[in-house]
Automatic annotation (TrEMBL):
Residues 99-128 form the DEAD-box RNA helicase Q domain. Its EC number is 3.6.4.13. This is RNA helicase. It comes from Acer yangbiense. A motif (Q motif) lies at residues 99-128. Keywords: ATP-binding, Helicase, Hydrolase, Nucleotide-binding, RNA-binding. GO terms for molecular function: ATP binding; hydrolase activity; RNA binding; RNA helicase activity. Residues 133-309 form the Helicase ATP-binding domain. Signal peptide: none annotated. Transmembrane segments: none annotated. SUPFAM superfamilies: P-loop containing nucleoside triphosphate hydrolases. It is an enzyme of class 3 (hydrolase).
Length: 503
């Protein structure tokens, strides 16, 4: 990572607004800023939920569905094929795993998008197993858990693109995501994959200030697929600009967070109910790398008669990403580890994301690194929409190498060149700071090692509390995280990066 004299930086504002995924110091709860003024009184949606119909549940033997082991396309990739995904289906629809994209009866236009534009060769395991479930009538609901970076986006994007009737010029598929960044990213994947299909799509996210136009002044949405954040989608629906009577696929990306009490549960359920009320049959697809027991139970109640794919939490950590912990005596030494031990090892490392817990922490670390002459950018929820978009674009275009982020980018953010994640602060639960947030931890470290690539994670620990949090995370995933012997030893860090396959 190049040292520069004129450090370029987007100064993080001091504005103390709060939104999901990043907190101002000691903020107790989270919610996307755009959702702050609910028009309707808060209702308990869980009470309206119908009891799940416990139809004949059959466990599929996923090993029998194994993809034939073709030659590996790239020997440096540990393709995420050997992951252990368990399937539970309801009813008696038979599903066969797809070993090629041709097996899925996709249109020639979609196959072209997959092979030519996406440059994919064959489906990953989650794609092979979930796509037949998504694309086979009677189009059952699906709750699908699979590892970070294993290609879940393709599952629901192909699901949406395949179900759209090109002759109906109205929204037919809706995908809801927790952040604008993820909505934009998913729309980009959809547009690339669906390039030859002529299917139209639109992003429903808060408008940036320069292009602002009141929703009431806009024509009704005719795009066949809409991807957005819950607040904006709800707003468009309430304003009757987004009609949902033709919607036949509803996707929740990062679904556990979309349905969590401290996430977007109310909005998600409201949107789901409205669609179920007005549209004849809508298939609900829920995707995430994590579904804790509470969310899993809740999902079983709201989304009735669904097929399921899931992974044990002990098997969720990516083997291709090596995790380390480093004891640092004080805060300055954490900055020095980043600067002298990690950045000094130079360009070989690819891109890096440094996660911090609070906006204050983000601003402080940003300033420390810029003062030391490093070029870093920082993203957090208090930035203006257009600045957020610009910072993400620069990072995705490879113009910046190091990005400091709050948990705004912890989930879903896909940049294959990221092979290093640094946890400057460990993630903790909003309501109890002495408990680690193991799900956020897993999502953060999953920003490295996309689709089987190699990666390393450094957890910087400073206090006994940090060590306790780390131990709890280790226990949760039943895995031992390797200690870097000395924060001050260049050799130790070199060794760690070598062992991770990065040097
Ligand atoms: P996640 O499961 O975490 O949502 P993504 O859908 O973001 O993962 O995919 C991770 C990366 O893997 C993306 O960069 C995507 O382009 C790539 N990818 C997905 N499916 C395939 C495939 N079948 N072949 C090659 N690369 C793929
Ligand atoms: Mg994803």
């Amino acid at each position: 990572m190049a040292e520069t004299n004129a450090a370029k930086s987007a100064p993080p504002p001091a504005e103390p607004k709060r939104s999901w995924g990043d907190q101002v110091e000691d903020a107790a709860s989270s919610s996307e800023a755009e959702l702050k003024a609910p028009a309707e009184p808060k209702r308990s949606w869980g009470d309206e939920v119908e009891e799940a119909a416990s139809s004949s549940e059959a466990e599929l033997n996923v090993d029998a569905l194994a993809i034939s082991e073709d030659k590996k396309v790239n020997k440096f990739l540990d393709e995420p094929e050997d992951s252990n995904i368990k399937a539970v289906t309801t009813g008696d629809t038979p599903y066969t795993s797809a070993s090629t994209f041709e097996d899925l009866n996709l249109t020639p236009e979609l196959l072209k998008g997959l092979y030519v534009d996406m440059k994919f060769h064959k489906p990953s395991k989650i794609q092979a197993i979930s796509l037949p479930m998504i694309l086979t009538p009677p189009y059952k609901n699906l709750v699908a858990q699979a590892h970070n970076g294993s290609g879940k986006t393709t599952c629901f994007v192909l699901g949406m693109l395949s179900r759209v009737d090109p002759n109906v010029k109205a929204p037919q598929a809706l995908c809801i995501c927790p952040t604008r960044e993820l909505a934009i990213q998913n729309l980009e994947v959809l547009q690339k994959m669906g390039k030859h299909t002529g299917i139209t799509s639109e992003c429903a996210i808060p408008m940036d200030s320069t292009n602002y136009m009141s929703i009431f002044k806009r024509p009704p949405v005719t795009a066949q697929i809409v991807i957005g954040t819950p607040g904006t989608i709800k707003k468009w629906m309430s304003a009757k600009k987004l009609g949902v009577s033709s919607v036949k696929v509803l996707v929740f990306d990062e679904a556990d967070h979309m349905l969590a009490e401290d996430g977007f549960k109310d909005d998600s359920l409201r949107i789901m109910k409205e669609i179920q009320r007005t549209s004849a049959h809508c298939q609900v697809l829920l995707f995430s790398a994590t579904f804790n027991e509470i969310v899993k139970n809740f999902v079983s109640r709201v989304v009735n008669d669904h097929n399921q794919l899931f992974v044990k939490k002990e098997e969720l950590s990516l083997e291709s990403v090596k995790q380390y912990k480093v004891n640092c005596p004080d805060e300055l030494s954490k900055v020095m580890v980043i600067k002298d031990r990690i950045f000094e090892l130079g360009e070989n490392l690819g891109q890096t994301i440094i996660f911090v817990r609070t906006r204050n922490s983000a601003s402080m670390l940003h300033k420390s690194l810029v003062d030391l002459g490093y070029e870093v950018t920082t993203i957090q929820g208090a930035l203006k929409q257009e600045d957020r978009d610009k910072i993400v674009k620069e990072f995705k275009d490879g113009l910046t190498q190091v990005l400091i982020s709050t948990d705004l980018l912890a989930r879903g953010f896909d940049q294959q060149q990221v092979n290093l994640v640094i946890n400057y602060d460990l993630p903790v639960k909003h309501e109890n700071h002495s408990e680690p947030d193991c799900e956020v931890y897993l999502h953060r470290i999953g920003r490295a090692g996309r689709f089987g690539r190699k990666g390393a994670v450094f957890n910087l620990l400073m206090s006994e509390k940090d060590q306790m949090l780390m131990e709890k995370i280790e226990r949760h995933f039943n895995s031992q995280i390797t200690q870097v012997a000395s924060w001050n030893s260049a050799e130790d860090f070199k060794g760690a990066l070598k062992a991770a396959g990065l040097l």
